Amino acid sequence: MKKIRTPYLIVMFLILYLPILYLVFYSFNAGTTMKGFAGFSFKHYGELWQDTRLIDIVFETGIVALLSSLLATIIGTLGALAIFRVHRGAVKGALLSLNNVLLVSPDVIIGAAFLILFTTFKFSLGFVTVLLAHVAFSIPIVVLMVLPRLQEMNPDLVLAAQDLGARPTQVLGQVTIPAITPGIVAGFFMALTYSLDDFAVTFFVTGNGFSTLAVEIYSRARQGVSLEINALSALIFLFSLVIAVAYYFINRLNQRQKAPELREKVK
Amino acid sequence: MVEKMPILEFSKVALSFGDTEVLKEIDLVLESGKFYTLLGPSGSGKSTILKLISGQLQADAGKIFFEGQVINDVPAEKRRVNTVFQNYSLFPNMNVFDNVAFGPRLKKMSEKDIQDKVKEMLGLVKLSGFERREISELSGGQQQRVAIARALANDPEVLLLDEPLSALDYKLRKELQQELRNIQKRLGITFVFVTHDQEEALAMSDWIFVMHDGLIQQNGTPEDIYDEPINHFVADFIGETNIVPGIMKHDYLVHFVGKDFENVDAGMRPNERVEVVLRPEDLDLTDPANGKLVVTIQDQLFRGDYYEITAVDDDMNTWQVQATNPATVGARVGLTFDPEDIHIMRYNESEAAFDARLESYEDEEAEAALQAAKDDQSQSGGQG
Amino acid sequence: MALSFKKQKQGFTSAYMGIYGLWLLAFVVLPLLLLLVESLQDQNHHFTLANYQAFFTSGSYLAMTFNSIWYAFLITVITLVFAYPTAYFLTTLKNKQFWLLLVILPTWINLLLKTYAFIGLLGQGGLVNSTLTAVGLHPMQLLFTDWSFLLVAAYVELPFMILPIFNALSDIDPLLTAASRDLGANSWQTLKKVIWPLSMPGVKAGIQAVFIPSLSLFMITRLIGGNRVITLGTAIEEHFLVTQNWAFGSTIGVILIVAMVITMLLTQDKQKGGRS
């Protein structure tokens, strides 16, 4: 199986990255379409720089993502704590099932249901409704990321802290939260990913005045897109790549620092 | 002896989880400054007692006193007891210093006092210089030391230890047993130690409570409990033992395995059915002609400082013998023992009745001994 | 006197439950109820079952239901077939976390951007067709076909299938593989009898993570599938945002939810049955 491993993985990674590299490649096209390369040029980056509407939308998309992830992380963590402390199995099961409803519902249905909700209560569609929708559909994934950490946590840690005289707030702040931090961080990043990746729900609950990047590209794509979108894609890709590589190396550095101590322990 | 006020007292304390009676009307009294051990198999209720003392559990019935005051309704955080948990339960997000300083910081001690306290505590558990280490870098034994230091840093009157050594290997366990005992002596506070390891209990304790089925089966000094187990459970649980059924014909004469034997127990009804206990280390091998019992060697294991020999008598009772010299498997040999090696247990005798009986005939014996000594003296006087 | 630890903690727990419960009510229970109510109304907001009647008597909607599930099924199968070996091979690599990161990275590029890339790749004069021409074949109509929809949907969902399978495979104790080999199983038998069964939780999570979103990929059907209404997801979008017939859109939504709940209950029962 070793023989087919490398070629298989090379092909899979090519497939995964082909569309993205294709976009990046044509962002340097002197021509105006993705058909035929007419020479190297940065002119689409210039166009992007001039397109203040698009730049605003990129920032607004980021703000919605950060803000909604933050709120969803807080509410989701509280939810996980609440569910964790429910002792009756039936109630716990019911809460978890309700929690998972949005995770297993197709986006179009969530979008449609939220649209009905917001219009029933006379919300004007725009930034607020998009933010509320993103918070709402991100909460369940945060709960699912945090809850296992609480379950894995040694329950005696809480008893030990209480035994040493800590109040509930001190136990929460000094023992519980640090123990579940990896889950909270993972939940935050999942929420961020959900928010940045979302198109369908936003498409339903956004009004005329507000748009996220996905919705904007959708409406532009139907009219035929200019290559400034390619330039934007290239920049987003570069940005993601930098974050990913930085994350990877910070992680490795942390592990390296631990390594000599481990060796000492072996002695 | 001066009557000290007990530091902790249980009066008819009971607790059930659903239909399971975890504790059935427990009475116990703990004096200040001693090392107590709750010994029993898992599910015997020993950890439940710890949790009632620390306040993690509430009793269904009965009263718990701390220095004479009822503390049933005092919340856990207000009790002057601290716990060393079985799995250490050190906070993984804090280093050694911060773990030990956890309690003092909550008490808002000054940073200088906290420094001193942590230093003192780490010195006590022989971990000076480990302040900046992360918990993940410590071995199991070191982690347990930190857990002990952390609990002691809160200046408890009573330290509760819930099977703290059970996860450690044999050698380390021995070492820490010694140290725990030394720490307790140095601080002079009360330790309540929970274990299922009888060897550990015998080695460390001033006083042992043997627990089974939610009841205290027997309590006493390690020597009392080893030498004079009250019933089959205690005899079997404490150390290797041979237990055979017998009949107490009259005082100082017991009948078992088809023969009569002189012994030193008394106070039973004539011809009462009893259980006879003989410890393996009290049995000696000899040739069949000189043996009080004749047995066939079945099996033998080398245990380092002795041979563990399994033999059967003609009634198919199994006998465990500890011998310094090896035997031959299949050989017929004799077993000898002294009258004082025989310990008699009555069926269903309560601890109080047991103690009373022991006292009555021991007094008798003492008087008899006194009388014998006098006789002896007068005789020798006559001669001289 | 301050409240006891227990009482105070109970107070906090109630507060957490209050906040979380409010979300459950406002954004889970209420929207679904409103969706149901909406589906049971006619144009004048009177109660009616007409929408459901219309759905179940219409040949085209029944066909579309079948189509949606069929496409979602195909997308799931295609991604599973490609994802499983990928995940498996990735777990055998030295710096597997690094390579996993490279699998996750494309998911950070918005779905619409990737879809847009395929318009270029598959279009006339795009990379695929120019390659075909270069090797002497005739260019083909690739865009706006069912195949292009399947291809793009499977591409978009691929990482979401690889991830849970990778995690499940990573959790398997390597000693189990060693034990299997030690007992005489070759690598194929080990894969079939040990690794595959143990990775089932990941496979199931992957199927769930791909199948459900595949029902709502209306933007891909619009941009790549040629603007035809071929799945229920597209139909819901059409009724809500184009023809403004919310009642009928809600009806389709409710039917889709009921169908999914039934599917999940059935698969759950199977799991339990299999274990006992």
UniProtKB/TrEMBL annotation, chain B:
UniProt xrefs under SMART domains: AAA
Region (Disordered) residue spans: 364-384
GO terms for MF: hydrolase activity
KW Translocase (keyword) present: yes
Keywords carried by this UniProt record: ATP-binding, Hydrolase, Nucleotide-binding, Translocase, Transport
Record's protein name: ATPase component (PotA)
InterPro entries in alphabetical order: AAA+_ATPase, ABC_SmlMolc_Importer, ABC_transporter-like_ATP-bd, ABC_transporter-like_CS, Mo/tungstate-bd_C_term_dom, P-loop_NTPase, Transp-assoc_OB_typ2
Enzyme Commission designation: 3.6.3.30, 3.6.3.31
Listed SUPFAM superfamilies: MOP-like, P-loop containing nucleoside triphosphate hydrolases
